[in-house]
Structures are given as structure tokens and as C-alpha cells.
């Protein structure tokens, strides 16, 4: 899957500013038309007056014969474009009528106007969460919460809003919209289960519905079940439970027999690599057998895509690269079609499976929409941030090195912009990825959280390690951190730093470490294990795994990572050994702590806990809380603040 040759960089270069970083427009959610002629996609940008991201819907010819055309004006959050089965129109969600409340819109992509006028298809109070046009061309499956009742409105008006835990989050239900009449019918036979995803059998048959017992992530993701729903009658067949973090159900047919596959964590594990799980739904009753189609593979599936006229396609994380695979129906094994550097995302296929579109980029340019023949060269269609070509970026190198126990590892080194290895040593900032089931891929990444190139343009070398626990190297590599976070993954990071010091790239007296989420945990962990780092940044990080198991929204998985909950006795507990807070008295490194005030993934209390310990022991640190933000930073002013504050912190200490 080769890239087109990158455009030459102009001789004159612009200064990279924080505004340029946060105002980059980015393509999202490509959707190829069933006939393979067009691809629709969203473009997200921070250009709204309210300081929050807005998005527009675009469409382009997959063969590049016409320039991309913007269909909506970008003044609202227009998202999730999906095609009618005959490719005649697009459906998407938008909050253009009421900010924060998405409704289903329909638009004709082949109109002559530059900005087309969408037609509103729903006025569902509470909004639409997701949608899926059905094969009959007359019906759209909707995922939506219940509309507020008169009693709900009274309670809201009077502030009578006590929350009963377990019933405090609204359930998304499966509903069917008749496009001709506008009537919405709810599928009541699923009861109060929270519907997470839906997809229809390509021949117009039943819907495969993935549901949870509750919308809470814990225990929701551990209670997932698959169902078949007949759209005409609403009749439901329960296929039984599926694995942890189950997602992406897809249908495929072989010799007249329909299969239903999905992604889930490798069976029998809460922590580990994703796997493709396949079953043949019985005529009645629950599924008898589920088969792991990716067992033993070193690459890890990241996306699974339904193809109407053939077996499914899938993207696999493969080291620093991403590979496109197709399932072989005979052997029930995935066969690689092509491979490209970096992370490919948003894979979408035509009805025949002969044409695909995907988001992909290079080490020097951000992701754009590409399309072409499946397994062949892909043509870039979008060009959302051309202004970035005037920036001189740091050269990004692929690294391969050994862990202390001999395991082969990979990662990336970003050199200071305009500098070579021979000009080292440089101040080095190690940026640890989140997850831990994630990875650094050989691609261009630049935002308020993953800001390696932002630091490289300021003269820093940046190390992006892929320690154990991450994706792209098989299940065992990912699962080894279970109950042992901060163990092998920490020594893996350290081995890479030692290599760069030995090679004269990194100045051992000017080392920094940072990360967000699990990477924030690793930064906090590192400075409790060694005094080698002269500065650290902990973003939305975990300081106490026991507290995280009890208060974070991924509770059961966090308990598996940390090793214990502390609920069965006074200890000592495994999670205490694995928590940075237990080593706060050792810390001498100045720490910048950044956290969103409304973070439910890693609650703010984790940062407050760490801050108080550092204050108690007199450790130099700065604690910054961003109002209204969750686990990431979305408001423009907050993104600008984080970028400037992170760079200033390293400028001060390194």
C-alpha cells in the first residue's frame, strides 16, 4: 500500500505556533459509497467561535477525477456520514438545530451547489447517538436514548435531580426510522439493554445487535451479548455472551452459510490483544461455538470491516506499520494484502470489496483520506492541512533495539528540527503512549497530547518507545503487564533511553519524560524509580491503582492491570507495589501535572492525590486543572495552554 511521493518542502519555512497545531483540520470517518464511486468523510477543525471543534461533511471521487467538495458549511458538528444502499444519498448526524443535540440529516451528494442544504429526518428529543441505513432503502436503524417525559422535565426544572447509581446513565435503544413517514419505532424486545452497535446482514436479513447490560463501561463491557433482530417484526434471537470489549460485528457468507464475526479481547483475558472471533448463528437459540481466527498471529487486529459480496477485510497493527488483510474463507485465516508505515484507520469498503478508502499519512504529513483498489496503491484525495508543509519538522527515525531480557522492541526517535544525529547529544524527552494497549506508529502525530514534533521544533529530541503491554506484537506481548504495570514496560523504556545515551543522541544530564493516561502513569512511575529525569509531565495519569479500580470508569480492567483492589483485607496489596503514590517520598524530579476536571476515565482525584504527596515531600511541581474537560483536551484555549505550558516546563528544567 505505497504512499504517493511527498511534495517537496519549500525552501522558506514558517515558525510552528501553538495556534497552528490546535487549528489543524483533520479528516475523520470516511465512508465509501456502495458502488465505489465516491467517499464521504468529515473534517474537524477548531474554527468555531465557541472554542470547540466543529466539523463539516465532504465528498470526493475515489478515482481522484474531481476535487473534493464540501457538502455542509462547518458551523455545527456534522458527523458520521453513511450511505444509502443505492449510493443515492448520505445520512449524517448534526447538532445544527440545537447545539449538543444531534439529529439525523439527509443530503444529496451530487448536487450542483457547493454547499448543499441537508434535510432533517428526525426531531428526537435527546438526540441521535448513531445510525445505520438498512438495505431496503426506506429504513434507518437509530441508536437513541429515551425522550424525556413530562416528569423528567419537571424534575430538571425544579432541580429534583438526585441520581440513583446504576440508573444514572441513559440507555441507548434500537429504533427504526421510516424515511417516508418520519415515524420512529422502538424495538422493545431488547428490554433495558444498552445497544452499542448494529449492522445488517448484506442480503437484507436480520440485524446483528451488540448490547450491554448497562451503559456503564464497568460492568457494561463485561456483559456484552449478541442478538439477531428481524427489522420487520422486532423479533429478537439472543446469541449469547461475547468477550470483553466486544465490538465491530460483521456478517460474511461462505457457500451459502452466514457467519458473524466481531472483535474482542483474546478469550479468557481482560488484558491482552484484540482478536477476531467468528461464529455461525444457529437457526434458533444461542451460539454453540466461537472460534478465534487470529490465534497465534503476531500482528493485532484493529478494525474489522464488512464486505457485502465477500469475506471481511481487517486492519492489523504490525510493529510500527499497519497491514490490510482479507479473511480466507477456506482456511479461516487472515492473509495480508498490503502494508504501510504508520497507523491506518477508518477502513471502509465498497459493496463488492474491490475499492477501499482509509485514513493514512506519512512520517512528515498528517493523515488524509486515501482510496483505491483493495490491496493496491491508494490515491490521496483530501488535503486538509497544506499549511504544515511550510514547517521544517524533525527527522523521524525507526528504532529497533533489545530489552534487558533480549526481547526485540521497536520505537521512534524524532530529532530536533534541522539537526542530525552527529550534532548530538540533545536534551531528550521520552513520551510514553497511553493504553497500555496502544502504540507509537511510524506516522506524523501532532496535537496537544502527542506533541513530539512540537518539542522537536523547539530543539528537543523525542523518544517514542513501544514497551510491553502495547499493540502490534501479538497477545503475549500485550498481556504481560497484567498485574505488573511498571515492570517490564518500565525496563523496556529504560533500555531505549540507555541506547540513545550510548549512541550520543541523548544528553544524560537533560532527560525528561512525559505521557498522557497510561503514559502519565508511566511518567509518574519513572520519577519514583530513578532520579535520572530532570523534568516530567504527568497528563491524566494514574497515581494509585487501588483508587483507580474503585473510581475509574474501566474499574475491572484497571484492577486487572494494577493487580488488586484492596477490598478483601488490609494488605499488603499488589496494587500498592505498582502505584506511583507508594514511591512519592523518593521523587526529586520537578513534575508538571495536567488533568481534566470532568475526567471519568482517570478521575481528577488521581492527580489531587499525587499533588498532595508531592507537596508533602516538598517536590517542585505545578498542578493544572482544565474545567469542563474529560480524559482529553477539546477546548481550543486549553489545548493552547497545554502546548505552551509543556514546552515552557521543559525549557525551564532541561
From TrEMBL:
<dbReference type="Pfam" id="PF00326">
    <property type="entry name" value="Peptidase_S9"/>
</dbReference>
<dbReference type="InterPro" id="IPR001375">
    <property type="entry name" value="Peptidase_S9_cat"/>
</dbReference>
<keyword id="KW-0720">Serine protease</keyword>
<dbReference type="InterPro" id="IPR011659">
    <property type="entry name" value="WD40"/>
</dbReference>
<dbReference type="GO" id="GO:0004252">
    <property type="term" value="F:serine-type endopeptidase activity"/>
</dbReference>
<dbReference type="InterPro" id="IPR029058">
    <property type="entry name" value="AB_hydrolase_fold"/>
</dbReference>
<feature type="domain" description="Peptidase S9 prolyl oligopeptidase catalytic">
    <location>
        <begin position="453"/>
        <end position="654"/>
    </location>
</feature>
<keyword id="KW-0378">Hydrolase</keyword>
<keyword id="KW-0645">Protease</keyword>
<dbReference type="GO" id="GO:0006508">
    <property type="term" value="P:proteolysis"/>
</dbReference>
<protein>
    <submittedName>
        <fullName>Prolyl oligopeptidase family serine peptidase</fullName>
    </submittedName>
</protein>
<dbReference type="Pfam" id="PF07676">
    <property type="entry name" value="PD40"/>
</dbReference>
<dbReference type="InterPro" id="IPR011042">
    <property type="entry name" value="6-blade_b-propeller_TolB-like"/>
</dbReference>
Amino acid at each position: 500500500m505505497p504512499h504517493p511521493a511527498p511534495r517537496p518542502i519549500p525552501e522558506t519555512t514558517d515558525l510552528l505556533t501553538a495556534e497552528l497545531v490546535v487549528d489543524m483540520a483533520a479528516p475523520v470517518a470516511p465512508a465509501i459509497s456502495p458502488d465505489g464511486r465516491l467517499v464521504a468523510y468529515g473534517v474537524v477543525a477548531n474554527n468555531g467561535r465557541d472554542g470547540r471543534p466543529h466539523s463539516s461533511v465532504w465528498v470526493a471521487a475515489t478515482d481522484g477525477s474531481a476535487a473534493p467538495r464540501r457538502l455542509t458549511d462547518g458551523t455545527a458538528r456534522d458527523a458520521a456520514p453513511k450511505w444509502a444502499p443505492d449510493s443515492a444519498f448520505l445520512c449524517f448526524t448534526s447538532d445544527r438545530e440545537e447545539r449538543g443535540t444531534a439529529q439525523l440529516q439527509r443530503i444529496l451528494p451530487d448536487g450542483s451547489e457547493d454547499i448543499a442544504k441537508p434535510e432533517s429526518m428526525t426531531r428526537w428529543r435527546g438526540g441521535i447517538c448513531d445510525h445505520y441505513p438498512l438495505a431496503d432503502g426506506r429504513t434507518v436503524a437509530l441508536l437513541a436514548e429515551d425522550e424525556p417525559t413530562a416528569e423528567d422535565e419537571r424534575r430538571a426544572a425544579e432541580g429534583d435531580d438526585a441520581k440513583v447509581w446504576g440508573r444514572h446513565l441513559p440507555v441507548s435503544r434500537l429504533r427504526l426510522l421510516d424515511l417516508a413517514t418520519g415515524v420512529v419505532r422502538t424495538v422493545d424486545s431488547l428490554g433495558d439493554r444498552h445497544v452499542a452497535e448494529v449492522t445488517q446482514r448484506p442480503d437484507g436479513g436480520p440485524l446483528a445487535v451488540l448490547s450491554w447490560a448497562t451503559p456503564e463501561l464497568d460492568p457494561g463491557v463485561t456483559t456484552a451479548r449478541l442478538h439477531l433482530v428481524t427489522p420487520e417484526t422486532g423479533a429478537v434471537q439472543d446469541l449469547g455472551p461475547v468477550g470483553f470489549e466486544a465490538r465491530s460485528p460483521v456478517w460474511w457468507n461462505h457457500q451459502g452459510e452466514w457467519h458473524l464475526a466481531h472483535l474482542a479481547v483474546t478469550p479468557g483475558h481482560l488484558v491482552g490483544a484484540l482478536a477476531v472471533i467468528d461464529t455461525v448463528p444457529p437457526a434458533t437459540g444461542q451460539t454453540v461455538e466461537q472460534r478465534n481466527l487470529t490465534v497465534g498471529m503476531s500482528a493485532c487486529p484493529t478494525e474489522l470491516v464488512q464486505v457485502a459480496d465477500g469475506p471481511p477485510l481487517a486492519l492489523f497493527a504490525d510493529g510500527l506499520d499497519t497491514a490490510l488483510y482479507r479473511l480466507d474463507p477456506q482456511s479461516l485465516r487472515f492473509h495480508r494484502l498490503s502494508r504501510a508505515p504508520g497507523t491506518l484507520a477508518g477502513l471502509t469498503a465498497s459493496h463488492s470489496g474491490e475499492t477501499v478508502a482509509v485514513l493514512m499519512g506519512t512520517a512528515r504529513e498528517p493523515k488524509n483520506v486515501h482510496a483505491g483498489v483493495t490491496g493496491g496503491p491508494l490515491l490521496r484525495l483530501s488535503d486538509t492541512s497544506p499549511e504544515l508543509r511550510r514547517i521544517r519538522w524533525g527527522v523521524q527515525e525507526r528504532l529497533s533495539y533489545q530489552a534487558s531480557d533480549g526481547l526485540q522492541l521497536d520505537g521512534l526517535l524524532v530529532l530536533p528540527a534541522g539537526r542530525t544525529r552527529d550534532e548530538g547529544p540533545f536534551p531528550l524527552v521520552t513520551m510514553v503512549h497511553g493504553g497500555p494497549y496502544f502504540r507509537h506508529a511510524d506516522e506524523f502525530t501532532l496535537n496537544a497530547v502527542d506533541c513530539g514534533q512540537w518539542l522537536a521544533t523547539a530543539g528537543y529530541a523525542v523518544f517514542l518507545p513501544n514497551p510491553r503491554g502495547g499493540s502490534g506484537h501479538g497477545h503475549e506481548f500485550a498481556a504481560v503487564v497484567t498485574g505488573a504495570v511498571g515492570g517490564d514496560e518500565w525496563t523496556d523504556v529504560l533500555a531505549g533511553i540507555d541506547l540513545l545515551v550510548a549512541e550520543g543522541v541523548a544528553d544524560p544530564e537533560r532527560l525528561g519524560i512525559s505521557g498522557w493516561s497510561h503514559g502519565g502513569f508511566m511518567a509518574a512511575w519513572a520519577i519514583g524509580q530513578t532520579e535520572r529525569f530532570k523534568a516530567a509531565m504527568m497528563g491524566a495519569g494514574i497515581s494509585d491503582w487501588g483508587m483507580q479500580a474503585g473510581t475509574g470508569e474501566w474499574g475491572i480492567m484497571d484492577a486487572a492491570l494494577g493487580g488488586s483492589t484492596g477490598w478483601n483485607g488490609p494488605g499488603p496489596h499488589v496494587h500498592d507495589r505498582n502505584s506511583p503514590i507508594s514511591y512519592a517520598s523518593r521523587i526529586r524530579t520537578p513534575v508538571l501535572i495536567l488533568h481534566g476536571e470532568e475526567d471519568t476515565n482517570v478521575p481528577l482525584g488521581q492527580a489531587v492525590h499525587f499533588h498532595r504527596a508531592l507537596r508533602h515531600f516538598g517536590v517542585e511541581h505545578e498542578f493544572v486543572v482544565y474545567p469542563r474537560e474529560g480524559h482529553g483536551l477539546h477546548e481550543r484555549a486549553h489545548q493552547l495552554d497545554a502546548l505552551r505550558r509543556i514546552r515552557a516546563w521543559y525549557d525551564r528544567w532541561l
